[in-house]
Amino acid sequence: MYPYLAPQRPSRTADVIVTSILLVLYWAGFAFVAFFSLFGIMITDSCGYNDCNYGNMNLAYILLDGVGGVVLLAASVVAIVLMARRRIAFWVPLAGILVQGMLLAIWVSLMSTVVPS
Description:
- By secondary structure, the protein is mainly α.
- It has one domain (about 15-40, about 50-110).
- Helices cover about 65% and strands about 0% of the residues.
- The protein has three helices and no strands.
- Helix 1 (about 15-35) packs parallel to helix 3 (about 90-110).
- The radius of gyration is 20 Å and the shape is elongated.
- The chain starts with 12 loop residues before the first helix and ends in a 6-residue tail after the last helix.
- The model has no long low-confidence stretch (mean pLDDT about 90).
């Protein structure tokens, strides 16, 4: 007579706690990296008139701050949805932190090509 209710998954308290801590650390780390990237403009202090590669600098900022922000928001939403569905979610912020680290490495390499040798 009554519809069959699917059994609920057990709550994973440790996963929720670890995922929440990792998300907070990821947000704080992104805020630090975004603030740190503002000082990258000082690399152009040694440039004369039009002899720096500003295209690489623009690309570096788009990748680090723009793409990094999109990855942060996507990782946060996916982790929250997985936690709400009682699935293991701690890996999502870890993957986002890994991607952010790769974007930081790309930013450093692109910024090193801005000023001609």
